[in-house]
Amino acid sequence: MTVIPGSRRRAKAGGGIRGGEAVAGWLFTAPMMIILGLFLFIPIVMALYVSFTNWNGNGSPFNGGTNAEWVGTSNYTSLFTQDGLKRANFMQSLNNNFWYVLFVVPLQTAVSFFLALIVSNRFLKGKGFFRTAFYFPSVTSSIAISVVFLFLFANSGAVNAVLSAVGIKGPAWFSDSRGLFHIVLGWFGAGDNPGWGQGLVLGRSVWDWFAGPSVAMCVVIILAVWTTTGTFMLMFLAALQDVPVEVEEAAMLDGATGWQKLRHVTIPMLKPAFFLVTTLGLIGTWQLFDQIYVMGKGAPANTTLTPAYLSYKQSFTSLQYGSGAAMSFIVFVLIVVLTAFQRWLMRDKDIKPRRRFGRAAAVGVATQGTGTGGVR
Amino acid sequence: MNQRTKGWKLTLFYVILVAFAVIYLYPFLIQTATSFKSNASATDNPLSLVPNPLDLSTWKRIFGIGGDTSLPIMRWLTNSVVVTVVITAARVFLDSMAGYALSRLRFRGRGFLFSTVLAVMSVPGVALLIPKFLMVNYLGIYDSYTAMVLPLVVDAAGVFIMKQFFDSVPVSIEEAARIDGAGVFRTFWSVVLPMARPALITLTILSFQGSWNEFTHFLVTTQSPELKTLVTGLASLASGDLGAGSQYPLKLGAALLTTIPVAALFFAFQRYFVSGANEGAEKG
User: Fold this and answer.
1) Looking at beta carbons, which residues of chain A come within 8 Å of B80?
2) Peptide bond preceding B46 in cis form (omega within 30 of 0)
3) pLDDT tens digits for range B25-34
4) Nearest CA to CA, how far is B74 from chain A (Å)?
């Protein structure tokens, strides 16, 4: 997506005295083309075909017959129109993942920006240590981290030990399927499943749609924020270094307070970084899979089920590859559409698109500078 | 970033940073300590960092000392090492070749190829589980080392990083070599690659980290226990497929073993990690 200025221009300019360059070019890129073609493009087409069949895992999916009958678009349409367990699960997984995204993306953006602001203070000592500490969880295996969180949030685990030390009885995190909003509503005496929540939307009651993330899902949300803030903090740090000192000084001379400077100078100038972080966040959060696989596989009561995990389970456990593939293509389209929508939402009318991409790319280049000069 | 940050403010900043550092690092300390505890003391004192009494049974079991071979963790470790080394070596070589061609060599279709690389980077990986399984199955290599390694020997992000790098270095030196009559591959191998050391180190680290931590690809392309890596083995151990119950010290010990190589790499080559993370950022 990044535009690299010059590459095309250079291709056209220059002399043609060097023979064999075209052949070498194709030879050098041949392994890449073969692997990407064989294990990416062709498989996607294959999966698209399978999503129009009811292949059950027996025999070849491409020969038709009773094992893989052509069923048209019914794998897609039944997910939305056909009442039953499959639709109920799929809608619940979308619902769960929606709450997850709604909590994780703003939280990870806010926390990483906050940490970057503090770490970038030029009078602070030990920046390298803090940067390392915050970034470390990002480089470790998602599976290993999930195992650690299974222990931390166990009934007799570290988190509940801390909570009981301050007099709070912690919940049974991984077996509590109550939605966060339901719990809060319960405090204000709103009854369980009131009249206004009875209506069904896509086979799921309004009350259930607005349950919020379950207590178990909250652990996954905390895990996600904890593991991703380090990476995003580095991006913000790079962007902060990119803010010209003159601009800051001008704001100071105009008598802006720290808060005003942040609100009217720093944050607007970091718009490309915010765009980058929220886009990457949005793409990542809709693909929640590894953590779910380790932390309960959708339990309790399917409240941590995600479309990504459901599509896997539908294919490899229930052996309904057709509808599993259909689900994964729906997630695929959802991610593409959301990213496009966000790009449209954050579009900057004053700045030409080319400039905006230029800034976003500059963030990366500048961070590279931080990388070589900063962390010691 | 005022000219002078007031003293109390700076103190507040330190307090905040230290609090966050505790939140970010303490879980790893608990993990390490717990792997030296017995099952009972792990849940009795989940916060303590001093294993009392010191219990080495977890690590004995992990290293297969004492005859208990019910969990072939050493086998998982061997698989992880072999698969990671092969994938990393292949990736560094093939990615830099492709990146070099996309940056330097003139041939028809180069622009198109590069746009394809960019498009590939934006494909959500989770949509590829079933596709990969279908192809691996179709080729008859399901449940083999070939299926684990071959699809991962090239990655678009690595090609992108190398192309960006070659775009940023001047061509003059290679041109001198070419004028002296060296062929394209010869120039690439003995002039270009040695110059590209920083980018190659970054790519090596990212590839190592990526393939060591890889989970979903191995999950859908293998099934036999002999092919489990540390990550897939740990996942089945933790999710209860191996019927291990809640043996927290064992699970945390295995998770620690999975974390150590990447952690060591991280502390040794921190600055490359950082630049790599932000190379990845550019694709946004």
Assistant:
1) none
2) no
3) 999 999 999 8
4) 17
